[in-house]
Amino acid sequence: MLGLGIIGWIIIGGLAGWIASKIQGTDAQQGIGLNIVVGVIGGLIGGIILKFFNVNVEGGGLIFSFLTCLLGAVILLAIVKAVRK
């Protein structure tokens, strides 16, 4: 996902964070800025998890990058929800 640049990180991260917040039911508590942060951090988490399972995350394309961000964002929000309770 490094080839997309900072604008790509913001767009894909924002979309992934927004969809993850819909899945986890936290959308009402998050604004666009937090959705972007959750999506970008989710991309890092998703990449680490997939590398752990020997999945080549580099050069996977736009859709694969988005799904990686979405996976990590859902996991991140699940952890945040568990800690808050």
From TrEMBL:
<feature type="transmembrane region" description="Helical">
    <location>
        <begin position="6"/>
        <end position="25"/>
    </location>
</feature>
<keyword id="KW-0812">Transmembrane</keyword>
<dbReference type="Pfam" id="PF04226">
    <property type="entry name" value="Transgly_assoc"/>
</dbReference>
<protein>
    <recommendedName>
        <fullName>Transglycosylase associated protein</fullName>
    </recommendedName>
</protein>
<comment type="similarity">
    <text>Belongs to the UPF0410 family.</text>
</comment>
<feature type="transmembrane region" description="Helical">
    <location>
        <begin position="59"/>
        <end position="80"/>
    </location>
</feature>
<keyword id="KW-1133">Transmembrane helix</keyword>
<dbReference type="GO" id="GO:0005886">
    <property type="term" value="C:plasma membrane"/>
</dbReference>
<keyword id="KW-1003">Cell membrane</keyword>
<feature type="transmembrane region" description="Helical">
    <location>
        <begin position="32"/>
        <end position="53"/>
    </location>
</feature>
<keyword id="KW-0472">Membrane</keyword>
<dbReference type="InterPro" id="IPR007341">
    <property type="entry name" value="Transgly_assoc"/>
</dbReference>
